[in-house]
Amino acid sequence: MRGSEVVRHVRKETGLVGRNVESLRKAQGLSKTCLSAMVGVCRQELAKVEKGEVSATLGTLVRLADALDVAVDDLFAEPTGE
After folding, report:
1. If we measure between CA atoms, which residue out of 7, 9, 15, 69 comes closest to residue 38?
2. What is the pTM of this model?
3. DSSP 3-state assignment of 29?
4. Residue 12 main-chain phi, psi, to 5 deg
5. Per-residue pLDDT tens digits for 10-67
6. Are the C-beta atoms of residues 76 and 13 closer than 8 Å to each other?
7. DSSP secondary structure of 51-80
8. CA atoms within 13 A on the CB side of 59
């Protein structure tokens, strides 16, 4: 992959993870404040992750998956359209 292709791919994945985190959080009835406290990040950082504005670190992804009771892979899953 060329540099610009890598950047596009990372942006796509960052947005996908953000949408999945938000969807899972809402499905479980958790507020951003509650989930951010469970994960150990500030609410504003969680909001940026959900909006796809920043990439979460691997450690944060692991803690998010644990708090949401899903596998890390699930945070990268494409929507099924259900």
Report:
1. 69
2. 0.86
3. coil
4. -60, -50
5. 677 888 999 999 999 999 999 999 999 999 999 999 999 999 999 999 999 999 999 9
6. yes
7. HTSSPPPHHHHHHHHHHTTS-HHHHTPPP-
8. 3
**What is the rounded end-to-end Cα distance, in angstroms, of the chain?**
32
Say how far apart CA 51 and CA 18 lie, in whole Å. 6
Q: Is the pLDDT of residue 1 over 80?
A: no
Report the candidate in 62, 26, 19, 11 with the shortest Cα–Cα distance to residue 41: 62
pLDDT at residue 13, as a whole number: 80
